[in-house]
Each structure stands twice: as structure tokens, then as C-alpha cells.
Specification:
Elements: H1 15-23, E1 34-39, H2 42-45, H3 58-65, E2 67-69, E3 76-82, E4 90-97, E5 101-106, H4 112-124, H5 135-138, E6 140-147, E7 153-167, E8 182-188, E9 191-194, H6 205-223, H7 227-230
Antiparallel strand pairs: 1-6, 2-5, 3-4, 5-8, 6-7, 7-8, 7-9
Length: 232
């Protein structure tokens, strides 16, 4: 049996090369180097000074800074079996799903961070008459950034149409006098986008119409040029 040509070459990577990657500016990502930016809907941002977080966004920023645990979200391609073929069955893509994520937030003495999330959830579902608000009125966004050791942003994702769906309980215990309090908050969102190459998504209808118009005009102009000039 003939031997594959793939077995004739040298190894793709060796230890010295891996160490070189580690020492370069790109290095390896650290799970403790990250930044979170929570952007609530306008109905929360514009609340007056009588609210627990006032009108100057201090508590919104404080809550973002107190996120002590978060995960970059994953994505699953949904598939189904394609049986309309001979031979082994193959899977074909039929869609994609995005799982909820959970953040852990450290709490101040007055629980201002929890109050902020609670106010957001009251905007979603009213506790007086138990009505539910319009979707566009309670969605916000959540950005997660990977930082390097010089605190520069090197990678980031944004949760689009995001809102808190679950606030965990907060345990109290006389035996934990030297511990801090945290609350877990789960977030739902429609999808996430990579801020490296998808930051402009989704584009507005007006922008897409503008592109179609520009492309149409360009094609018409190019069609009127002599074939010699079109090759330049």
C-alpha cells in the first residue's frame, strides 16, 4: 500500500515555536483579564435621581465593573439528517442557536447593583398588574472584551437584544462574616456578534438600500466605459 505524502514532512509545530508565540505580543489569553460593559435600554438610562442609580449612569458603570465572572458565549449550529442520498447519512445545517449566559456580580452594602438589575426586570414585567412591556422597550446590550496584560482590548463580542431573565437568590449566613455577597444574573439575547469583524451588524435598511443604489449606479457607469478602460 502506498504511503501518504502527508507522512513525509516535518512536524507542523515544535516546542520552541510555541514558546515563541507565548513571548510575543499576541501571547495567550488569560481568563482573569476581561472587561464587561452593560448597556441597558433607554427607559433605564434616563430614570431620574429618585432611582437607586440616579441619572448620571454611575451605578450602571459600577455594575459593569463588579462583574466577577462571565463567559464568552457559544453558538450551536442546528442540523438535521439528510437522508435523500445514497451511502452514509450526512448532517446539513438548518439554523443556529445561542445559549443564555450567567454573570456573577459583587454587591455593595446598599445592593445598588442588584437594584439596577431589579429595575430593569420591572421594566420587562410590571409587578403591579403583571403586564409585560414591549420587547423593544426592555432590550439592551452586553459587551465582553478580552484584555491583554497591558489592559488593551484584543477581542470582543456583543450580546444583541439582551436583557436579564433571572436573578439568583443571595444567601445570608452568620458563619460567613469575612465573605462578600454576590448575585448571579442570567441573560437572554437574540444572538451575539464578533466585534472584530461584525461590529457593524445588523445594518439598517437605509444603509442597505444606499449600497444597492451605489452599486447600481457604479454598474451603469462601468457599462458605458470602453472595454479597454474597464480592464484598468
Amino acid at each position: 500500500m502506498a504511503k501518504s505524502s502527508l507522512l513525509d514532512g516535518f512536524a507542523y509545530g515544535v516546542l520552541n515555536e510555541l514558546l515563541g508565540f507565548f513571548r510575543t505580543d499576541d501571547g495567550y489569553a488569560s481568563p482573569s483579564r476581561y472587561e464587561v460593559i452593560i448597556t441597558p435600554p433607554a427607559g433605564i438610562q434616563g430614570i431620574g435621581t429618585e432611582s437607586p442609580f440616579g441619572s448620571n449612569k454611575d451605578v450602571i458603570r459600577r455594575t459593569s465593573l463588579e462583574v466577577t465572572s462571565v463567559s464568552f458565549p457559544g453558538m450551536t449550529i442546528e442540523t438535521q439528517d439528510d437522508t435523500n442520498i445514497y451511502g452514509p447519512t450526512r448532517k446539513i445545517a438548518v439554523g443556529q442557536t445561542f445559549a443564555d449566559i450567567t454573570t456573577t456580580i459583587r454587591l455593595s452594602n446598599d445592593h445598588k447593583e442588584r437594584n439596577f438589575i431589579d429595575s430593569w426586570q420591572r421594566l420587562i414585567a410590571n409587578r403591579n398588574d403583571f403586564s409585560v412591556n414591549y420587547y423593544n422597550d426592555y432590550i439592551g446590550s452586553l459587551q465582553i472584551f478580552q484584555l491583554d496584560r497591558q489592559d488593551r482590548r484584543r477581542h470582543g463580542v456583543e450580546l444583541v437584544e439582551c436583557f436579564p431573565i433571572n436573578t439568583g437568590d443571595i444567601a445570608l449566613d452568620y458563619a460567613t462574616q469575612n465573605s462578600l455577597e454576590f448575585v448571579n444574573v442570567s441573560w437572554a439575547y437574540r444572538y451575539w456578534k464578533n466585534l472584530t469583524d461584525e461590529a457593524d451588524l445588523p445594518r439598517s435598511l437605509l444603509e442597505r438600500i444606499g449600497d444597492v443604489f451605489v452599486n447600481t449606479v457604479e454598474r451603469k457607469l462601468r457599462s458605458k466605459l470602453p472595454s479597454v478602460l474597464r480592464r484598468l
